[in-house]
Amino acid sequence: MLEAVAAGPERAAGAMGPANRELGPRIKAAVATSTELQERDTLKSVGLAAAMTAALVARGVPGPTARPAAELGALAFKQGYAQWFEANGPAPGTLTQRSLTALEDFRKATTTLS
Predict the structure, then answer these.
(1) 17-41 burial: b if 16+ Cβ within 10 Å, else e
(2) Of 112, 52, 60, 105, nearest to 83 (Cα)?
(3) What is the Cα–Cα distance from 96 to 79, expressed in whole angstroms?
């Protein structure tokens, strides 16, 4: 199922390029100063998770399983994006790679919990 979850961050990352990376710090600073922009940022994350949930359900994943899996995918994208634009100099790794690495890190962490 996590392979299907990975499709969400991959698709979202594929739509972003160098201009998004350059604007990242300025967007982060603007969002930090505005409640309205913080709410909008949250709605974007909710929308990404909802789209991923719908895609998982369409693939036969039950809703109660699809929702937290999609949330994990959205968090992986968000973490990958933050790492991508915060990197100094040329980004070592694409946004897609960073998002998928974050998702894999989350997966590994769940296997070590008991």
Answers:
(1) eeeebeebeeeeeebeeeeeeeeeb
(2) 105
(3) 11
Q: DSSP letter for 15, please.
A: T
Task: Give the model's pLDDT for residue 95.
Answer: 82
DSSP letter assigned to residue 17: -
pLDDT tens per residue across span 77-111: 888 888 887 776 555 678 888 888 888 888 888 78
| 104 closest CA partner among 28, 5, 12 | 5
All structural domains of the chain, each given as residue ranges with its CATH number in brackets, are 2-112 (1.10.357.10)
Tell me the C-alpha distance between 114 and 107, whole Å: 14
